[in-house]
Amino acid sequence: MTRIIAGVAGGRRLATPPGDSTRPTSERVREALFARLEHLDALQDARVLDLYAGSGALGLEAASRGACAVVLVEKDRRAAAVVQRNVRELGLPDVQVRTESVEKVVAGATGEPFDLVLIDPPYDIDDANLATVLQRLATGWLNQDAVLVVERSSRSPEPVWPADVELIGPRRYGETTVWFAEFVPEGDAA
Length: 190
Fold this sequence. Notes:
Elements lengths: L1 E2 L9 E2 L12 H13 L7 E5 L5 H8 L4 E5 L3 H14 L4 E4 L3 H6 L6 E6 L7 H11 L4 E12 L11 E9 L2 E8 L7
Parallel strand pairs: 3-4, 3-6, 4-5, 6-7
Antiparallel strand pairs: 1-2, 7-9, 8-9
């Protein structure tokens, strides 16, 4: 069972897509990830982009904990339909679902930049593909000091960060490593 851990929707259940098309983040990892984000003061009133959303658990957790706007991106139509259902049933405001590939979304127009980006791609995603997504995010998608979170298999190498992204540090939880980084455009480093 997947559920929202805390915030206004805390304890509410989330539907998950059928089959093995997605890999939901475990409750233990989500709890630790969001504790770290709260420590970094990265949630309250944040604009959040959840890439490879799956069931939407990460982005919806952010919305429950005080994010002001959340965009969930999921290309699998069955999974995106489940995300839409979760959004409706939770009744959280300012949550949008985009049924498109992450690559297509980040290759397009940026719109208003984000404060937090949650990236939980399938473990089999190519490292070069992930590096391209990260690079595109650094070209207009992020506010100053935006936090990026990348969840990967502990057997995967560290993501290749764009020049304007500084590693905060990884956290390992069994088979999962969560990488935290911050967008600090050139010339803005302390």
